[in-house]
Amino acid sequence: MNKPESLRAHLLAAVPELRHNPDRLLIVIDQGRLRATAAPGLSFEYSYTLNLIFTDYAGHPDAIAIPLLAWLLVNQSELLVNPKRGEDAIQFEVDPLANDKVDLAITLPLTERVIVRKQADGTLQVTHAGEPQYTEHLESTHLEVYADGELIAEWDTPAPTGVALETPHPGPTRYV
């Protein structure tokens, strides 16, 4: 599993209090599951609850929440863009301590796809698939459509108003 270490590195780089005290960020994985269809091959998905535990944290919770959301947008975007999925996906608990410090626990449901491909020599190659990314809509422009050299339509596209999910066609692949 790669996401727990990726998130840890991101938070340690983003939050100065954690950068100076990295041992105050604990990561625990609970309720782990493997899901495989065996159709055809050994590719599968990890599914688990990631628990982030910040001990003796004295900073503002926004300093953790905002970098966390930025990481999720890239690494588990459906928790943010799917209202039904994200409704109760990100949970937290706070245990107040003395001297304006807290223990903060955040839980996240994460998944990771693992692609297993048989190589020509018969060995298996493992790859952790990246998440589909969002890109800006096409820029505003003037479009023209021609058929047999004749202009048949033209219009100006509106200014972009959001983002779109990149879904490149993966092409033919044989999984083991």
From TrEMBL:
Q: Where is this region: Disordered?
A: 157-176
What is the taxonomic lineage of the source species? Bacteria, Pseudomonadati, Pseudomonadota, Gammaproteobacteria, Pseudomonadales
Matching entries from InterPro entries are given as: Phage_tail_completion_R
Which is a Pfam family this sequence falls into?
Answer: P2_Phage_GpR
Report what the protein is called.
Tail completion protein R (GpR)
